[in-house]
Amino acid sequence: MYLAIALLFIPFLSAVLCIIVRRSTIVEKVATTGSILTLALGIAVAWDVSTGGSIHGYGGYLSIDKLSMVMIVLITSIGAGAILFSLSYIKEEVERGHFTQDRVRWYYSFLNLFVLAMLLSVVTGNLGMFWVAMELTTLTSALMVSFYRTRASLEAAWKYVILCSAGIGFALLGTIFTYYSSTDGIGGTLNWSILMRQSSQLNPVTMRLAFIFILVGYGTKAGLVPMHTWLPDAHSLAPTPVSGLLSGVLLSCAMYGIIRYDAITVSAVGAAYPGTLLITFGLISILTAALFMLVQKDYKRLLAYSSIEHMGIIAFALGLGSKIALYGAIFHLINHAISKSTLFFIAGRINHIFRSKQIGRVRGIIGVSPVTGAFFVAGILAIAGSPPFGLFASEFIILYGGFTAGKTVVSLIALFSIVMAFAGLAYYLSRITFGPRTKRPISYPRFRLPVAIFAVGLSSMALVGLYVPAWLHHLLEGIAHSLGGA
Amino acid sequence: MISYLVGPQMLNLLGVAILVLALAMLGLRGFNRSLNVYAMHSLLLAIVTAITGYNVANMHVYVAAVATIIIKVVAIPLIMIKLVSTMRVRQESRLLVNAPTSFIIAIGLMMLASHMARLTMPGQSPFETMLTVGIAVSMFGMLLIVLHKDAVIQVIGLLTMENGFFLVGLILTGGMPFFVEVGIFFDILLTSLLLWVYLRRMNFELKSTNTMHLNQLRG
Q: Which residue in A139, A162, A194, A357 has the most chain B C-beta atoms within 10 A of its own C-beta, making it the best mutation to test that interface?
């Protein structure tokens, strides 16, 4: 329990220290140390949970089970990756005059606060606190979306805050309805483990209302179509390390909320109602994202649309609701988080090398920069869902779950959309890799650390795509079981 | 459920007033007028909160009433009016559709809200009325955001939405768990602050808060 408190305290301390010490070299050291310490604590908490079982404390305000544990590991590891990647990225940005040296400390401070808000959302066992933490993630990440102080970034941040605050307002309504539906049977609680255990006591009528509000609310944050319009703007205009966190981790945190509510709703009112809603939203998201991916000109926007596609796949899998589909959903969540954030980091390097975010300007990438180029190609293959990467395995599991559950039509639509998204990405990939080389870019500094981060991210994805280790298999099975997968 | 020994009739009356004010906001054009109406709206909400606090005899509902007055009746409107007065642009918002159409949409939303309220608390006065009002007000807030192409009005829409949610929470739960309530107020305050910063920048950089000028990002 104290480990979990320390886990929240370190990013906070690090955020405060980053503002107090003004020298940018020290700020970087503070941020690096903080992120590594947070990662270590995250792993320690995960170890605690996997050996000693769930952690509960402070009247249910703190509650960590296996699903939260997975989220903690994702947030701390990708958070650490983002901060370590920022070291070289931000230095380069300052050198190019995109922002001034004295704003660097604010950057690291905001980044730490953002990580803190996400951690808060997954360690709390109270769905009301979860709502508060989700709203905090919007605010802290909006500061990063508008960090470049350009007109476009102001526009993106404005849309982001207005739409997500409005959307998440509906999630508050859903939270209130959930509380109300528990007042007669359980006496009013927002603690998800109690709601889960005593779901038969919940009022089914209000729980249905609650779920639709929740799906619209957190669905906005998770980027489900048609509430997704803020997402490509915000994700493409934030500094790239932050884009990685937004796309890879924050969307997963919103999805985590939907997963929790889905489990409660399924056991309170049966699987049909939430299942139909989730499958509908999921399929529309996959299909729309796949269509928009075909017409993108900016590769960061392309990646953002791909995130919408993957969130759609997860929603679809949740809607299927069988144990194997839930297994696939959580597996997909993990794979997407790691692949997408790594790919965003690589895209940041590509942007520095080619000095452009336009797909048309990036040609003959392997010739220009063999190492980063190869990683970029591999990363795009990974998020397109091609073997041997993890996303292929999880998409396969989800579709297998769909077909074996007898939901042939929807599974076929999902399969068709996924193939279309794959085709879109493959088309861009052929242009980027084989196209005629653009004029030689200006020299850029070489860093070792980012390459190491890319290598760790992608090789872990290749590994789980080829072979799921026994501990991971048991973990995913345990989570699918706890979510009520039959 | 809360048993209202004091003031069920008064609550119904206040509920209708809250609804009418929110509806009026849909048709208003000047920024100052909208902000004044918002402040009044919040004041009525604070009165409803105080009455509920008396009925459930719960200290932290009173605290919420006081916080509503400090934050939503005084602080936010004052800060916003001050900001708006520094703007050199025409202080008038443009609607996407004309006022009668927006009222017709509003009536449709009200019927939807009434349906949801009936599902939740059938035939219980004053709960069904208040719940209808709460859900309808939050939907009107959403409508303000969608239909008005002005950043200042969008902020007022967001705040109105939140007033609606607050009312629903109050009526259904008689006060959420304390930490959650504190967290919600904290979030409202931070959101307003952040939007205030963006509005200032918009005013400074674009010389306008018309969101039609925010049109660089498409597709």
A: A162
* Contact criterion met (CB < 8 Å) for B172 and A135: no
> Distance between CA atoms of B96 and B160, rounded to whole angstroms?
19
ipTM above 0.85, yes or no: yes
Residue A445: CB partners within 8 Å, gap ≥ 6?
A88, A92
Delimit the domains of chain A by residue range. Answer: 271-486
Residues of B in contact with A176 (CB under 8 A): 165, 168-169, 172-173, 176
- Token readout for B203 is 């005013």
pTM: 0.93
CB A149 within 8 A of CB A100: no
How many helices (H) and strands (E) chain A has is answered by 20, 2
Q: From the CA atom positions of chain A, what is the Rg in Å?
A: 21
Q: Mind listing the pLDDT tens digit for each residue in A325-346?
A: 999 999 999 999 999 999 999 9
Q: What is the DSSP string of A418-484?
A: HHHHHHHHHHHHHHHHHSPPPSPPPP----SHHHHHHHHHHHHHHHHHH---HHHHHHHHHHHHHTT
For A239, how many CA atoms within 13 A lie in the half-sphere containing its CB?
Answer: 27
Close Cβ partners of A192 (under 8 Å, ≥ 6 residues apart): A63, A125, A126, A127, A260, A264
Helix, strand, coil: what percent of chain A each, to 5? 80, 0, 15
Q: Quick check: helix, strand or coil at residue A55?
A: strand
A225: left (phi over 0), alpha (psi -120 to 50) or beta: beta
User: Radius of gyration over alpha carbons of chain B, in Å?
Assistant: 18
Q: Which helix (H) or strand (E) holds B111?
A: helix B99-120
Both tokens assigned to A127: 């769905």
The model's pLDDT over A241-298, given as tens digits with 9 standing for 90+, comes to: 999 999 999 999 999 999 999 999 999 998 899 999 999 999 999 999 999 999 888 8
> Looking at this protein, which amino acid is placed at residue A182?
S
| A161–B195 C-beta distance less than 8 A | yes
CB A461, CB A419: distance < 8 Å: no
- Phi and psi at B149, nearest 5°, equal -95, 45
In angstroms, the CA B175 to CA B170 distance is 5
CA distances from B58 to A104, A124, B53 (A): 47, 25, 6
Q: Which of residues 261-300 of A touch B (CB under 8 A)?
A: 292, 295-296
**CA atoms of B133 and B126, how far apart (whole Å):** 11
